[in-house]
Structures are given as structure tokens and as C-alpha cells.
Amino acid sequence: MKISVIIPTYNCSALLAASLRALQQQTLPRAQFEVIVCDDGSSDDTAQVAAGFSGSLALRYLWQADQGFRAATARKLGE
């Protein structure tokens, strides 16, 4: 694995889907990058959107309870 793409998100499932579709179009072989979605307690369909891409991307979905803005903590979960 050469590259980790970390996407922090909160209730932005449509934007997440667009981002993941863009990553599917990359010319870098999929074996060379992973996608880590760090969800800060979304209440929309973010989890389902991420799950829909798990077969086509090396994707990990991490969820944490919403306790206010904590993007740095979400990024740390990806390590």
C-alpha cells in the first residue's frame, strides 16, 4: 500500500459518494491505495454509502460518536 486517502465526514453522504466515485476513476492501481472513511457520528446514510463502495475500493469505515468537531481525532483513527 503506497497511499492512504483519509476522508473525515459528517452527514455528507452525497459528497462522500461523489468522492468515492472519483477515487474509483483513479489510474493508480487499486492495490496501491486505500480509503479510510472516518465518520463523526453521522445520522444520514453515510454508513450505507461507504459499504456500497467496499467491494470496489480497499475501504475501511470508522465511526465514532458525535461529540462536536473532532477532525483531528477522526484522522488519528486511521493510523
UniProtKB/TrEMBL annotation:
Q: Which InterPro entries match?
A: Glyco_trans_2-like, Glycosyltransf_2, Nucleotide-diphossugar_trans
One annotated GO molecular function: glycosyltransferase activity
Q: Which Pfam families match?
A: Glycos_transf_2 (PF00535)
Q: Which Enzyme Commission number(s) are on file for it?
A: 2.4.-.-
Q: Which residues form the Glycosyltransferase 2-like domain?
A: 4-69
Which key words tag this protein in UniProt? Glycosyltransferase, Transferase
User: Do you know which PANTHER family this protein is assigned to?
Assistant: GLYCOSYLTRANSFERASE, GLYCOSYLTRANSFERASE 2-LIKE DOMAIN-CONTAINING PROTEIN
- The name this protein carries in UniProt is Glycosyltransferase
- Its source organism is Chromobacterium amazonense
